[in-house]
């Protein structure tokens, strides 16, 4: 929306891409996963600021909002990045048509087909691997049980008096 002045994000890549496309500067407050990396890249590229959620307070947030919303360098950086991202040789429809024709030209494009589609279900779900690991654990437990039985029988032999 053209009236959006600022976007506060956790650093999810898809939402950041949309904000870049719309030329909306950001404040990133990452929590986990790839979010800290994404927000650090945003800061290094110059189109937003990072805030730490553990030390976040009212004054820090207000200062960051005023900085990002009022400083034109963030929006100018986004305009440049958006131009780079939007410079594509084909539109989305043209790409869809090209790929459809590609698949037709190559009779289904079997070379692009995922090998998972031809894999048995038990291999796809890794049940064969789980079975082998479970069997190995059971075998180890059985060997430990046998060793304990042998040690116990040797140590606990009743004394026979003749």
TrEMBL record:
Which GO MF terms does the UniProt record name? UDP-glycosyltransferase activity
- Show the Gene3D superfamilies listed in the entry: Glycogen Phosphorylase B (3.40.50.2000)
Keyword Nucleotide-binding tagged: no
List the SUPFAM superfamilies hit by this protein, alphabetically. UDP-Glycosyltransferase/glycogen phosphorylase
Keywords in alphabetical order: Glycosyltransferase, Membrane, Transferase, Transmembrane, Transmembrane helix
User: Where is the signal peptide, in residue numbers?
Assistant: none
Transmembrane region positions? 121-148
Is Repressor given among the entry's keywords?
no
Record's InterPro entries?
UDP-glycosyltransferase (IPR050271), UDP_glucos_trans (IPR002213)
A Pfam short name:
UDPGT
List the PANTHER family: EG:EG0003.4 PROTEIN-RELATED
User: What's the family?
Assistant: Belongs to the UDP-glycosyltransferase family.
Under what name is this protein listed?
Answer: Glucuronosyltransferase
Q: Which organism is it from?
A: Photinus pyralis
